[in-house]
Write a structure and sequence with these properties.
This protein has seven helices and four strands. The chain folds into two domains: about 100 residues, no CATH class; about 45 residues, no CATH class. A hairpin with an 8-residue loop joins strand 3 and strand 4.
């Protein structure tokens, strides 16, 4: 039965190392040993701490040795408190915290963006034949009969396109209304 008592204390220490918070480990141990969440919540902390300090009494240890295969809750919590204050605990927590992944930044949703207003000028959308960059040219520039030189806005390309405006085709006779 001694190995069961030692394994319970080792499990308490491992749990304390995992959570890193003595109060959380105390609450879980109390809830587990008392088998009740409501009872654990109603315990007077100061009176319980006094019982923990008295758990080193030789009569208490003899009772624990003879009557149970697990240590009494008061002794378990006192040993957990002592382990939490030890240099070994602090050293292992530093190692654990070093290798614990940092929490990911919270996703922040941006405010919805209002749709862009259409350009004030009437623009013609062209595509560079060399790099496929979109170019916008005012339709007024393309309305004449003379060819227009348009430079690609992509600094890596810079190709100059010669745009010759086409005269609109006359409508077919059957589409002309009277």
């Amino acid at each position: 039965m001694a190995w069961q008592r030692h394994s319970a204390i080792t499990a308490d220490r491992a749990g304390l190392l995992c959570v890193g918070d003595l109060e959380v480990a105390r609450r879980v141990t109390l809830q587990y040993t008392l088998h009740s969440f409501p009872i654990a919540a109603r315990i007077n902390r100061e009176a319980w701490m006094a019982q923990e300090d008295a758990s080193d009494d030789s009569a208490m240890q003899a009772s624990e040795f003879a009557m149970t295969s697990t240590p009494y809750a008061a002794r378990r919590l006192k040993l957990a408190r002592e382990f939490h204050a030890s240099a070994e605990f602090q050293g292992w927590r530093r190692v654990i915290e070093h290798w614990t992944p940092k929490p990911a930044p919270k996703n922040v949703q941006a405010d919805p963006v209002a749709p862009k207003a259409p350009p004030k000028q009437d623009m013609e959308k062209l595509t560079c034949i060399s790099c496929k960059t979109v170019m916008r040219v005012p339709k007024a520039k393309l309305s004449g009969a003379e060819p227009v030189n348009v430079r690609c806005p992509n600094p890596d390309c810079g190709k100059v396109l010669k745009i010759t405006p086409k005269k609109p085709k006359p409508p077919k006779p059957d589409l002309v209304s009277d």
